[in-house]
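Predict structure. Input: EF-hand domain-containing protein, 196 residues.
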Amino acid sequence: MTKFITLFFLLFSAILFAQNNNFNKTITKVKGDLNKDGLIDYVQVLQDSISETAPYKLEIYFAEANGNFKKVVSTTQAIDAQYPDGRNGYYNGNSFYKIDIVKGILSIQNELIRGNFEHKFRYQNGNFELIGFSQVYSDGQGTMGTIDFNLSTGIRIKTTEPYGEDDFPKTNSKQKIMIKPLPKLQDFSPFKNEYY
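Output follows.
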C-alpha cells in the first residue's frame, strides 16, 4: 500500500510538473539594456503548443556582471492566448505580433482584425510598470480611431475620423486620467479595464 501511495504521488507530481513546463516553443527573443546598468538583458516569449488555448509566457532576464542571467519576471497574463476559447472556439481578433526594446522601454505589440495595439513598460521603482498604451482601430463601418495614453503624465488622447463615403465629423478628445499606482507587468492583463 505504501508503494502504491508513493507511486501515486510521484505520478501526480510529474503530471503537475509537465503541465507547468509545456512552454516548449520559443516565439521570439529580444535583447537590450532594460535596467540601465550597461549590461544587455533579454526578453523572450514562449508558447505552450500542447495546450488547447496555446497560451504565451513572457520572461525577462537581467544580465549580471559575471555573465549569468537572472529571471526577474515570468507571466502568462500579459499576452492573450492564441486560442482563448480553444483551437475550435471563437476567435476574438487579438493576436500577438512582437516585442521590442527601444531606449530601455519594453513594448508588447498585438494585431487586431482591423488595427493594432501596444503596451509599453519601463523598469522603475523596482518593477516593470505600464507607462504607455496606444491603439489604432476601425469599427468596420467607416470610422477609424486612435488612442494614445501616456500613463506617466495621465494624458489620454482619443481621435476618430471617417474613411468611407459617409461624412462623419472628426472628433478629438483629451482627458487627464491618473492611474496610481501604475500597473506592474507581473499583474497585468490587456483590456481588463476601459483605458488600457
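The chain has one helix and eleven strands.
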